[in-house]
Write a structure and sequence with these properties.
globular; TIM Barrel; alpha/beta; about 35% helix; single chain; 9 strands; eight-stranded parallel β-barrel
Length: about 350
């Protein structure tokens, strides 16, 4: 049987266990190498049928494009109209909102023109150099995009992933507090990727802050090299998120391309302990996301599908409550491939 069964044309359902919805998916659905490996040839160049096909296999996706460029609200509306519930979209915060550099030329025109001209010409600009009114405009534009999904009940979570090399600093808490008027409306996940955050008092400070504000701590599976932390399996609110980045040591290297850093395929032996962890966490939270970021050449989809099948087998009780999100016997909806173009 193919790992990616022919889809039935309806969104996949999350796996249910102990009243917890388990949503498995990938971080991006349109990366070129992902597209060539995952989708049937008939939909590879058709955005809406492509999204429908993805949603027939997985019940959620993490939007990576929102990190690289501010997305318009009408795009979120279009996505929500393309695939119905229970499918949900998870949004990765724009780079400037998580202390990463970004390219001013990618900004929407109405935000770009607000930049002082010397900053407009910079190829890669740090958010630390932005005037407050510019950063406010960026937050507002991003919030309109997120809220377009939230108001349609299609928002899973909003991910704030801070830089890998960023060690512990209480300034992160102050920063998040500054934008509380936006954050309090969203299911927020915070990901830090430096061992400093989980040493001694810093660990208690971080997890305590997240619990106090109802934010989810991101449980990250990463290569165990240099400053990258080992997975910290803690829940800080009534939902949780595990992000699988792959275990390629290149993750900790500077100047390495995204394709190189995330080129990793988990083995079944590496996934099985996570299936056990998922079963345990499903007893503590109402919703759990398993998101695979090892997207190169569709490896994220392969591993996401593998853990789906592991969980469907592991969690199926006598009454059949737990079920795989896809029916392997379902036919592919070729008749609908041109809809929505």
């Amino acid at each position: 049987m193919s790992l990616f069964p022919d889809a039935a044309g309806v969104p996949a359902a999350p796996l249910l266990h102990n009243d917890c919805g388990i949503y498995t998916g990938t971080c991006s659905w349109a990366d070129p190498s992902f597209v060539s490996e995952f989708y049937p040839e008939a939909v590879r160049t058709k955005p809406r049928p492509r999204l429908r096909y993805y949603a027939s296999v997985f019940p959620t996706v993490e939007v990576d494009a929102s990190y690289h460029a501010l997305q318009p609200a009408d795009r979120a509306v279009q996505w929500a109209e393309t695939v119905p519930a229970p499918f949900v979209f998870n949004i990765k915060a724009f780079a400037w909102l998580t202390w990463h550099d970004s390219i001013p030329a990618r900004l929407p025109r109405e935000v770009f023109v607000l930049l002082p001209k010397p900053l407009q010409a910079i190829k890669s600009l740090s958010p630390m150099r932005l005037p407050e009114e510019i950063l406010t405009a960026v937050w507002d534009y991003f919030a309109a995009f997120v809220d377009a999904l939230r108001l349609r009940e299609r928002l899973g979570y909003v991910l704030f992933q801070f830089p890998k090399g960023q060690g512990y600093t209480p300034e992160l808490f102050n920063y998040l507090d500054t934008w509380a008027l936006h954050l309090e409306n969203w299911p927020v996940a915070v990901e830090v990727r430096h061992r400093d955050w989980f040493d001694g008092k810093a660990r208690g400070m971080l997890l305590g802050y997240l619990r106090e504000h109802g934010f989810a701590h991101v449980i990250a599976d990463l290569a165990q090299v240099r400053y990258l932390p080992s997975p910290v399996v803690e829940t800080t609110t009534d939902w949780s998120l595990i992000r699988f980045h792959g275990r390629n040591p290149a993750l900790a290297e500077k100047g390495v391309s995204t394709a190189q850093a995330y080129d990793y395929l988990y083995t079944p032996e590496e996934l099985r302990p996570w299936a056990e962890t998922t079963e345990r966490l499903a007893g503590d939270v109402r919703r759990l996301y398993l998101m695979f970021n090892n997207h190169f050449r569709g490896k994220s989809a392969q591993n996401a599908r593998e853990i789906q099948l592991m969980l469907a087998e592991r969690l199926r009780p006598a009454d059949g409550e737990a079920r795989p999100a896809v029916n392997p016997e379902s036919p592919r909806p070729d008749a609908d491939l041109t809809a929505g173009d």
